[in-house]
Design brief:
Blueprint (H helix, E strand, L loop, with lengths): L1 H7 L2 H7 L2 H23 L4 H26 L5 H12 L1 H12 L9 H19 L5 E4 L8 E4 L3 H25 L2 H31 L5 H21 L5 H22 L4 H82 L8 H32 L7 E4 H18 L3 E6 L10 E4 L1 H17 L5 E8 L5 E8 L6 H6 L10 H4 L7 H11 L3 E6 L6 E8 L2
Parallel strand pairs: 4-6
Antiparallel strand pairs: 1-2, 3-5, 6-7, 7-9, 8-9
Helix pairs in contact: 2-4, 3-4, 3-10, 4-5, 4-6, 4-10, 6-8, 8-9, 9-10, 11-12, 12-13, 13-18, 14-15, 15-18
The structure holds adenosine-5'-diphosphate.
Adenosine-5'-diphosphate binds next to helix 15 and helix 18.
Length: 556
């Protein structure tokens, strides 16, 4: 039985027989295991950290197997050592592949069946190792001839097995590289470069080691895999997938714990031992809490930092998009408005008889063209206003504006529209007993006119029957000029009142009373009045009970 063979070999002999290269490989490999263990302990929930730990374990095992092989040279245990070395080595490409497959920011889990599928080729190759001499065997030294690894017929299968995993890992990583961006992309780039190096060395060694007679240069392969492991750990820590600060705290706490435990062995009396044990337990216990909270703190800080960066990026992108949208809107609107103005102008001249009297049906058609183009122009103006308001480049020319003059002029112009749809229309200017009250405010005359016209226009649109009353008066302290317009129209309930000043919002039955509305006029009015440091608001007792709109401006 093979284990009898192993047991009969003095373990000490093997250990003493290990060469310096053997020791270096074993210690460096165990260091890799330790490093991957820390990474895993630090965040065991991440899938890729599990597979990275698996890789670390395999590398550690591989290093030990190498030391075992090195020490067993010249003893009869060498046959088992060779088989063990290759058996563990076969896990290296597999573990690299698993890690690369699962290496992502999202950490999508590896399904159980996929895992089994990945291991099947390994079980196949492990079975092949059990067949004496099929893949590798060892020819012991005899006389002047040195011992050597003998490569069997199945060796090419082993080469193929290793290459398939390395190439597959490479393909997976290249795919991830193409799909990723930013920090993650540069992390993958570094890993890709080292993976390429490992694959090149491994391939070269596998193919040419039969001609080197076997094992003298085995350490080169170990070295390349270790470089891959250390570089990958460094990359992961550097790009903040796993946090260096947490690892440092954990490392420090482990050192303190180790020192305390060593102290126990140096105790001089039972009492001393008791006290030292108490202190050690207390410190180790409380530092585990400390590590936990540091870990949580740092991790949540990192998460917030990453989120902030993402938000900042998105915010900038949105701003650019928003500016482009406003620019487009402004340009498009300009190009639309000019020809429309011409259409409206000619339609108006036609209905007014500038080109001769039109027959009644034709006149009606031209009037419709006139109305429609007027509506389109208003809509385009609203869009342009919005784009200017939102891009912040609306121009205001502030001068003294006589609100009394402005309201009276507008009322004169619009009275016809109201009376045309059989609405009563009255205008009151409350200019005090002396009739000398001043209604001068500071503002942009054109914009204020636009706001008041919009309110009168709305009242006409949303009042099917009844009358409209316009009132201009001053607050009791004479500090404010208040324009109000009340109608007996469709009115609004409280919830509608709240939203009508929001862009694109229209209340309840507005669509029935006036189908073409877009819900933009009041939004624009509110923004314009805001720039004048004035106030605009609406009141209504409810649906069907009429509405009142108010504009309040500072009196000069
Ligand atoms: P539009 O009239 O194009 O829909 P506005 O921004 O001017 O856009 O008005 C927004 C909404 O406010 C209207 O759709 C309507 O629901 C409501 N509204 C405005 N004025 C009145 C009014 N005088 N009476 C009742 N509802 C009104």
């Amino acid at each position: 039985m093979w284990y009898n063979e192993v047991m009969s070999v003095p373990v000490l002999d093997i250990i003493l027989n290990i060469s310096l290269a053997g020791w270096v490989v074993a210690v460096a490999s165990l260091l890799m295991t330790f490093l991957s263990g820390i990474v895993f302990w630090q965040d065991s929930t991440k899938h890729s950290s599990k597979f990275f730990f698996f890789f670390g374990l395999v590398v550690g095992g591989w290093g030990m197997a190498y030391a075992f092989f090195d020490g067993a040279l010249g003893t009869s245990t060498i046959h088992i050592a060779v088989a063990t070395l290759y058996l563990v080595a076969g896990l290296v490409p597999l573990s690299i592949f698993l890690f690369l497959c699962d290496f992502s920011i999202k950490g999508n889990p590896f399904s159980f069946w996929k895992l089994i599928a990945v291991f099947i080729p390994y079980f196949g190759i492990a079975g092949a190792f059990m067949m004496p001499g099929f893949i590798v065997s060892f020819k012991e030294a005899s006389g002047s001839e040195l011992g050597a690894i003998v490569f069997g017929k199945g060796y090419s299968i082993y080469i193929l097995y290793v290459l398939v995993f390395l190439v597959a890992g490479f393909i997976v990583l290249v795919k991830k590289y193409r799909e990723s961006a930013g920090v993650f992309k540069s992390a993958i780039r570094s890993i890709l470069i080292t993976l390429f190096m490992v694959s090149a060395v491994a391939t070269f060694m596998m193919i040419f080691s039969p001609s080197f007679g076997g094992f003298n240069l085995f350490w080169v392969e170990h070295l390349s895999v270790l470089v891959f492991g250390f570089v990958t750990s460094f990359v992961l820590v550097k790009y903040n997938f796993w946090n260096l600060k947490v690892i440092a705290v954990e490392f420090f706490v482990s050192l303190v714990a180790l020192a305390l435990i060593i102290e126990l062995f140096l105790a001089t009396s039972p009492l001393d031992l008791l006290i030292k044990t108490g202190i050690a337990v207390f410190i180790i216990f409380s530092s585990s809490f400390l590590v936990g909270s540091v870990k949580r703190e740092i991790q949540s800080g990192d998460k917030i930092e990453r989120l902030l960066k993402d938000l900042d990026y998105l915010y900038k992108q949105l701003k650019v998009l928003d500016r482009k949208k406003s620019e487009f809107l402004s340009i498009a609107s300009h190009h639309l408005r000019d020809p429309l103005t011409a259409i409206r102008g000619y339609a108006s001249m036609l209905t007014e008889g500038s080109f001769g009297e039109l027959p009644a049906p034709l006149n009606e058609a031209v009037e419709k063209i006139f109305e429609s183009s007027k509506r389109l122009i208003t809509m385009i103006s609203d869009f342009m206003d919005i784009s200017h308001i939102e891009s912040g480049d609306m121009n205001y020319k502030f001068t003294d504006v006589d609100m009394k003059r402005l309201v009276l002029d507008l009322a004169d112009e619009m009275r016809f529209n109201a009376e045309h749809v059989h609405l009563g229309f009255d205008v009151t200017i409350d200019d005090g007993p002396s009739k000398e009250e001043s209604f001068v405010t500071v503002g942009d005359a054109g914009k204020l006119r636009q706001v008041i016209a919009n309110l009168i226009d709305n009242s006409i649109k949303y009042t099917p029957r009844g009358h409209i009353s316009v009132l201009l008066h001053k607050s009791p302290d004479k500090e404010k000029i208040i324009f109000s317009i009340s109608d007996t129209g469709i009115g609004m309930n409280a919830s509608m009142l709240e939203k009508i000043f929001v862009k694109f919002s229209r209340a309840g039955d507005a669509g029935k009373a006036y189908t073409e509305g877009r819900g933009l006029g009041l939004y624009v009015a509110k923004e314009l009045i805001k720039k004048h440091e004035g106030r605009i608001w609406a009141e209504s007792k409810g649906e069907g009970m009429g509405s009142s709109f108010y504009v309040e401006m500072e009196a000069k």
